[in-house]
Design goal:
Distance between the termini: 69 Å
Largest sheet: 9 strands, mixed
Helix content: 40-55%
Number of helices: 15
Number of strands: 16
Length: 485
């Protein structure tokens, strides 16, 4: 992005989040991701005449929980409206949403960047149904419609235009995603579309408090794409303004492959959608008692959990920060530690081998499927010398992929560390005989040679020896051996 001192970038976000309900917002169809096209539909979510919606109570509870976590004011009496527009993926020719009385208003979220902390205002949160999905076939020059997503419950989180850079946008989205995942309200997987952000961006003269003409960018399915789109749109608008032109108020589609955006349509206002109250749904009344029940069910959030893990378990700040980035990871840490009472060693397994395998397989911490019992057992085996470090990592892969019992697996495959001292002495004697040079080096005071001889012994034992025993016996034999000839 160019450094353009004449202008200040002003950014607000509209973030759509698919809620983690088993069924859709107004019908009983499944919300499971990845099903064959048009197999999770019914007359309600495909807009058949006469089909009537019935509100999913869990949607209201998730939306209210997110609103509370974002320091918002919950609207005790909210209702739904019809947003009318005509598009192939919208079978009813309208979307049931909330305009006049959304479920939450006036929230805020604190973010931190290298420039310090900052509060971002949340204008509102409203509930609505998702549209279907158009699948474009460029080769055939046509599009197919999949209505599986039609009726999937959404909340739209509308920020105030308080962000000034891509760094602030990404910090906001990461914090938002962490909070929603901690609540269990959504998995927020950008690659699957369960979290989608539209970027509203404008430029204004530096030092001005007014607002420039904004554009809205869609089709942003990764943080990297969002950063690139913000940089490109900032430069595009600056070039227009510096050349004396006027920025058009429009919706643009980001093409991450080409690294640029394209105009889709002029930007609509609320009146363009001809909103009116949804006649088939009664208003929603959230009683004080119901709201307190939702509030009482709120989990310990990341900031509180991070501070507690550091204090209770003595974890370094780095460990606690990594572990608490995911509630699943933090819960796994605490559950395994409760069993084996080795917090730092459990942390090492999670931050090391677990994160490595997650990354290699394109997975997220929420995809972890092994049990804390098996992680604790592996930690004990490795710590006691029952498995060498090399073998323990091999066994952990079985734990990670199959949730295998590490002790049973190691026993069945002959992987447990060898503790037979006589056998170890015999192997070490052979290693010393074959490596006369390093033996001489050790006897001449070059103690680093010991590491080489330990490695050769472990190699001979195929990693199935107790390193501590090998080290102890090898030093004893070297110290008592005659000079190597």
């Amino acid at each position: 992005m160019k450094e353009i001192k004449e202008f200040e970038t002003v950014i607000g976000l509209e973030v759509h989040v698919e809620l983690a309900t088993d069924t859709k917002i107004f019908c009983g169809c499944s919300t499971a991701f990845g099903a064959k096209p048009n197999t999770q539909t019914c007359p309600v979510c495909t807009g058949m005449p006469g089909a009537l919606p019935v509100l999913n109570r869990q949607v209201v509870e998730y939306a209210a929980a997110v609103g509370l976590a974002l320091n918002g004011t919950i609207t005790p009496y909210c209702k739904f409206d019809r947003k009318n527009y005509f598009y192939p993926d919208n079978p009813q020719n309208y979307q049931i949403s909330q305009l006049y009385l959304p479920i939450c208003r006036d929230g805020r979220l604190e973010i931190r960047t290298e420039n310090g902390s900052k509060w971002i205002g949340i204008h509102e949160i409203h509930m609505e149904e998702d549209a279907g999905k158009l699948v474009h076939d460029e080769g055939e020059d046509l599009s197919y419609v999949d209505y599986n997503r039609s009726g999937v419950p959404l909340i739209e989180i509308v920020s105030e235009p308080d962000m000034r850079s891509a760094a602030e946008v990404i910090a906001y989205l990461e914090k938002l995603r962490t909070i929603i995942r901690y609540l269990g309200a959504s998995d927020c997987r950008l690659q699957e579309g369960s979290m989608r952000a539209d970027v509203n961006l404008s430029l204004r003269p530096s030092g001005s408090t007014g607002m420039g003409t904004r554009t809205e960018m869609k089709n942003l399915n990764s943080f990297k794409a969002i950063s690139r789109a913000i940089a490109h749109e900032t430069d595009r608008q600056a070039d227009i303004l510096l050349s004396g032109g006027m920025v058009a108020r429009e919706t643009r589609r980001w093409d991450d492959t080409k690294g640029c955006s394209f105009s889709m349509r002029s930007k609509e206002d609320a009146q363009d959608y001809r909103y009116f109250p949804e006649p088939d749904l009664v208003p929603v009344f959230i009683s004080g008692e119901w709201l307190e029940t939702i509030r009482a069910a709120q989990p310990e959030m990341r900031e509180e959990k991070l501070a507690r893990l550091k204090e209770r378990y003595g974890l370094p700040d780095y460990d606690a920060t990594i572990l608490t980035a995911s509630r699943k990871m933090a819960d796994m840490f605490e559950a395994a530690t409760a069993i084996c009472q080795k917090p730092k060693k459990v942390s090492n397994w999670l931050m090391g081998e677990t994160m490595r395998l997650l990354h290699e397989n394109g997975m997220e911490p929420e995809d972890i499927s092994f049990s804390p019992e098996h992680l604790a057992k592996l930690t004990d085996l490795a710590d006691s010398g029952g498995l060498s470090n090399t073998v323990a990592k091999e066994v952990f892969e079985k734990v990670f992929y199959e949730d295998a019992d590490p002790e049973v697996y190691a026993q069945e495959h002959g992987l447990k560390a060898e503790h037979d001292e006589e056998k170890l002495r015999s192997v070490i004697a052979q290693v010393m005989e074959r490596n006369c040079g390093p033996v001489k080096d050790y006897q001449n005071g070059k103690k680093k040679a010991l590491g080489f001889l330990v490695g050769q012994t472990m190699k001979e034992m195929k990693g199935r020896a107790n390193p501590g025993m090998v080290n102890r016996i090898l030093q004893e034999m070297l110290d008592n051996a005659d000079s190597c000839i």
